[in-house]
Amino acid sequence: MAHNWDLRSDTVTKPTADMLAAMLGAPVGDSVFGEDPTVAELELRAAELCGKEAAIFCASSTMGNQLAIRAHLHNPPESIVCHAKSHIFQYESGGAALLSQAMMVPVTPSDSINLTAADVKQHLILDNFLYHKPPTRLVALENTFSGVVMPLKDIEEIAELAHSHGIPVHLDGSRLWNASVATGISLAEYTRQMDSVNLCLSKGMGCPVGAVLVGSAAFIDKARHFRKVFGGGWRQAGILAAAGLYAIDHIWPTMKRSHEQARRLADGLTALGFAVSLPVETNMVLLSIDAEMGVVCQQLVDVLKEKGVTMGVLYEGSLRLVVHHQIDDECIDLILASARQQLAT
Question: What is the DSSP string of 130-196?
């Protein structure tokens, strides 16, 4: 039987037969009118999981993050402190500048993979001396970052710092599901001090589309206004929301297995001489590639493609492998065996 394993991302998954059945059987209504019961159920479920008052179903995490930024900022020009390699800074098409007239202040962590309160403190703009600088009006965090879990202690300390200056904190928790599984810390505990949180349903959760933004009732009401402005009003969106409800109940619990597979893959490749550039704490393996190993990796990618395994392209000196619920042990075994064979030739 021909295989089709894809490790480029955890967004490449296809809905399972059971997920599709749940989608087809979902009761629906006009969500713009507030009449879709399945959308309402998903929003309530996400809000309860995060210990927040309300939530809004969005088309994507990019939309969720950009809605959060727009709803938090009120008087441009203003600025946002974030990780220098965060999704909202590097991979959302300059949305903060275009949609919210906001300047991003990218911060490279000084002594860790994730931001700390000390990093953030150095880059807060609290005094716009002679009006040269836009004041900081939002701090944006990301958990997980490249598969690495952001420590709860750092999240709490950054929130305490920001809040002491009246600055809200947004969490891009696209893969917060993974962080919770890896640490045993609930979503509610991770998000307790966050003013808004984005949860993705298509990264690792197996849904074809969707994300949920959670926060206070007043904040979500404002975000709902901007979602309409952004062209994101849903009609019979319960068909898609049903996939999210299914994922929470049936896909999320499988993440521990994906994390174990990623760890086994990383250990096996390390034993063969490959270098892992970041700790493997959830479902991602990032291989550090120098010029010599780059040739070997590209050959490995090409060989595995012929065997039904699609892997990421080499970029910025690394190769990212992402494990998800549609990757099995046979795939991991094949990658390790092929790598061993490739190094022997």
Answer: GG-SPPEEEEEEESSBTTBPPPHHHHHHHHHHHHHTT--EEEE-TTHHHHHHHH---HHHHHTT-SE
Query: In whole angstroms, what is the distance from residue 169 CA to residue 156 CA?
Result: 10
Helix or strand (DSSP H, E) at 317: none
Rg over CA atoms, the chain: 21
Instruction: Give the tens place of pLDDT for each residue, 191-249.
Output: 999 999 999 999 999 999 999 999 999 999 999 999 999 999 999 999 999 999 999 99
- pTM of the predicted protein model: 0.95
pLDDT of residue 315: 61
Name the residue type at position 181: V
Residues in Cβ contact with 63 at an 8 Å cutoff, skipping those fewer than 6 apart: 211, 227, 230, 232
Residues 6+ apart with CB under 8 A from 94: none
| CA 236 to chain CA centroid, nearest Å | 26
303-330 per-position pLDDT tens digit = 999 999 999 766 667 889 999 999 999 9
